[in-house]
Amino acid sequence: MMNNSKRKREQEKLEGVQDKLETHQTPLQGHTPKKSPTSEQQRRALVERIIQEAIDNGEFDNLPGKGKPLNLNENAFLEPGLEWAYGLLKRNGFAPDWIERDKVIRKELQEARSQLRSAWQERLETFISESQWQAAVARFEERLNKLNHQIDDFNLSVPIVRLQRSRLRLEDELRRVKDLPDDK
Question: Which domain holds residue 127?
Answer without folding.
Answer: 97-179
